[in-house]
Design goal:
Structural class: alpha+beta
Order of helices and strands: EHHE
Oligomer: single chain
Helix content: 10-25%
Largest sheet: 2 strands, antiparallel
Shape: globular
Radius of gyration: 13 Å
Strand content: 5-15%
Length: 73
């Protein structure tokens, strides 16, 4: 899973229920999101909306029983 977090937020700013669910966080990368940017498995506009409204966006692993849909090209 991936947890997108606004650059101004820290772990302390995230909901306690979310922290309990993800347990251990590891920083992977920094991304600059824009409507023009394509993400492999998420709609960038949805990610940006959730970050602006909630301060984060949680991307769960794909369901192995569902077809893989890419939002990129």
């Amino acid at each position: 899973m991936y947890l997108y977090v606004h650059e101004d937020r820290t772990v302390e700013d995230l909901p306690e229920e979310l922290i309990k669910m993800v347990k251990e966080l590891t920083h992977v990368m920094d991304l600059e999101l824009s409507p023009e940017r394509k993400l492999a498995r998420e709609d960038v506009l949805l990610v940006m909306k959730n970050i602006n409204e909630k301060g984060f966006h949680l991307q769960m692993p794909p369901d192995p029983l569902k077809p893989v849909l890419h939002f990129g090209d």
